[in-house]
Amino acid sequence: MEILSLDDRLRQYLLKNGNLEGCDKVVDNVNLKPYEIKDSITSLQTSAEEITSQLNVI
Fold it and tell me: Count of domains in the chain?
């Protein structure tokens, strides 16, 4: 069994599912500063809340 880094596993998953653009973005995020990571997390939380509220309407 081959041992892969997290980046390699993520890249394989996204390649398999046809979303390589997201993979490149995640790899770029590895070099973020702490405040940039916090902003990214806040943005993801906002997106998740919006999706959840849309699902609740359905």
Answer: 1
